[in-house]
Amino acid sequence: EGLIIGFEFLFRICLHVDDKNALEHIKATLGCGRFTSDRNTITFVISSIEDIKEVLIPVFEEFPLQTPP
Description:
Distance between the termini: 38 Å
Strand order of the largest sheet: 1-3-2
Structural class: alpha+beta
Radius of gyration: 14 Å
Number of strands: 3
């Protein structure tokens, strides 16, 4: 069996660069995260486990994703 050296949790949203303002709004509202870009795509990433635990998870607890039955 393979040896697991580590792991990483991250949250990301990828959009076209024309929609950067939406991601900037999300980042400003949450007060955490960073941007990366590649060609015509911009990505908002939260990789800090503390930010995921203290900021992101409470948002999803308060506003659960609505999925079809």
